[in-house]
Amino acid sequence: MILYLYVLDNVVAASKDGNEAKSKEFKDFDNVISEFMKDQGIPGLALIISFHGNVIYKQGYGMAGVNRPVTSSSRFRIASISKPLTAIGLMRLVEQGQLTLDDKVFGPKGILKEFKPSAKGDKRVLQITVRHLLHHSAGWDRDQAGDPVFFNLDAIDAKHGVVSPISDQFNVKLVKFMMTRKLQFAPGKRHAYSNFGFLVLGLVLERITQMKYETFMRTIFLRMGLHRLRVGFTKRILCDTDEVEYFNNRDPAILKSLFPNEGLVLPQYGSFSMENTGAYGGWVASVGDLLAVLHSLQRVCGDENSVGSIKYTQGPDPKSCQTPPGRKERLQSWHQSTSNIDVKPIDHDGQSARQRDADGMHNEADVKRIKFCHRYVKDSCFTYEDSAPRHQSEVEICECDTSQDCDADMSHSCLECQTFTPFGVPIQDKYPPLNSYCEFESQRNNWVNDDTAGNADCKQKESLDSPNRECLLEAFTVAEMLARPGCQNGNQWYGLGLDVQDCGTSFGHTGAMEGSCGTMMHHKSGFSWVMLMNSWSRDMDLDGLVKYALSTVKGYPLYYEADEDKNIHEINSQDDQEKVLLLVPLPDVQAQIAHAESAGFMLTWINASNIDMKVYFNLIFRQSITRWSVYFDIDDDGFSVILQQEENRDRQPVLIESYTKDDKIFYCILFHESTDHNQGRIVSPIVPAKVYLKLISEKRASGMKVTCQSASVSNGDIYVSSIFRNTDEDTDSWLQITPEEFLVEQQRQMKKSRDLKYVKFYSLGEEPFVSALWTTDANASNRYQRYGASKYGLLQELREAASRNLRLQSCSSYMSDGVLNFAAVWNPSDV
Q1: Percent of the chain clearing pLDDT 70 (strictly above)
Q2: Domain boundary assignment for the chain
């Protein structure tokens, strides 16, 4: 153990610089990744990035082990990124007509007939379908009943005998045991992520194919030229030589071994199985392997027959999550008619040669495919001239009126669609052939051939997409995978084995286990990326990290001019009416505020955070002629003096925030000019939560309602600073609810015509909570919100929102699990 810690320290302390050929255009990109690795204590990382199908950068950072640098060809455990691979295998069988998504799984009428609920079990398992398992909607909720794949079966199910925890029989025994347990909800009613559900899918695949799970899956990937994709091994000694070494960077440092009489082991080498977990988490791959899989899905190859059949791919009924009558037969008929069709010749951009016009425009069949895969694209986005379809420079997203096949919730739930072109780069822009040797000359923002290359460092001599590689699935099938289930809402959902975002224009999956984590993503902007690490990352907003890093590369669609002061992040709206500053240190806050005030801005939001014994502020400004003032470092002695002084100037307190400095509590108070003297205000300095709740009752009895309740945590207890005013408005407030509960509460309050007036996210221990209040407002509107975001991910979202002039209501930072998190709430009606 001492030797391992010595090795870990040395590997983590090693350089995080790139180990492969570098590009000067990606210098800042490399710096972002290296900084992230140092901050998170990650020994090694590999990534690969493509743009519209062309590999533009690949790199390995840090160490795969002692004296072993990571490269982009290094192989990693990919954890739950294995689930899309399993889904692809199942959907391949669906295409071949060997099963349908609505086939039952258990019982006499199921695929796995030998498994049926016991007397103490749950008869509803007989309703579970293949679709339910792929959607994670089969009825198991690990948050309520634990994750079955980590159960110690020998301790709780001795009657079925002792089996090796890495054998196939372990999975069979686990399913038998789960037939004695209750479901947590009816199949199809809601989504709850389930490793066990995908374990069952592995058994389904084996039953249908009469082959071992890994054997069948490798036949698919070998046809694509992906020879190195395989399920991994639990024991370190069995791992392949090109596989990285895994490091545990969190507690506990050792755990009980899976194997009898083996005692304690390093968590990453013996506390969980790899050999029999391929269906939900056991695969080992390189970043290039996974990018090839992404490209195959992205290309959505197929012929006109598949595109023409898209009209039949309506999702299950939203209320029941069941397939509409007759659809099963249409699907089966279509799959049987196309299962033996050879892959059509593809042109240089990976699509059927007849599916794109000579000038690169999408033809009518391609438009149908896009409109199906991205359900919320309006017909008006497409215009037709001289029988040749053209796509406008920006794709609009429908506002979900009764004429569209959309859910009403969509107009309230999608920040992305309100702030950024769903397809990123305009579709009519031309890009180089997928398989040509090319480079990107960022200064001119166009593609040039090698003969005219201006920067040799940018040359890319390969593309992972080869015309000889078989597409994994047909267009119809990929569209099915991306479709939103009827029992999920919002702008992102879990499809058939894929995390789908941005209303269907982005998709991928993340994965994490002891000793490794990663992500693969095809983004709406045209980028695709895969990033894998050989340790756990406390900050799991990995896609946000990549997007932020890409924003430093000139000439690409995510590029953003760097902040002059890299320690203070400034975001300005497109119309220059709003300014946001993140992580302003206390010594600099007065100067930053004075600078904004001189430009005509008024401060509307303050959030204080104690980070590494220092105080930082997140600030929001709006252009305004209203007089205002703000005070920092106010203690209890100066509290009443400041209040009286500002009252004499006809300014009323609108926000109060507390923070700790030198083991003492201080306040910052924001005042806005007000001529309304009939609504007297009372400001309460920080008090314990229990005292505050009593204070609310007392003030309510005298006609005063709370307008600001700033929650802070000290020594594990909640303290509140607050502002009350005289009002007849109906108000409702919550001091400590989870972010998930906040979303539900926001919808409930809207139905009561209450508008969100104040919201702050904070952490208590390792858990995030929300302080929020609503007041009566006939024009109450919904909010877009994001919580649990890293600095990198939030910055990109703030930039996208600012480009659409979407107003930010609040921005909070808080520590959770040792990581700085951010939460933000936008008000789309506040323009």
Answers
A1: 76
A2: 293-324+345-504, 569-827
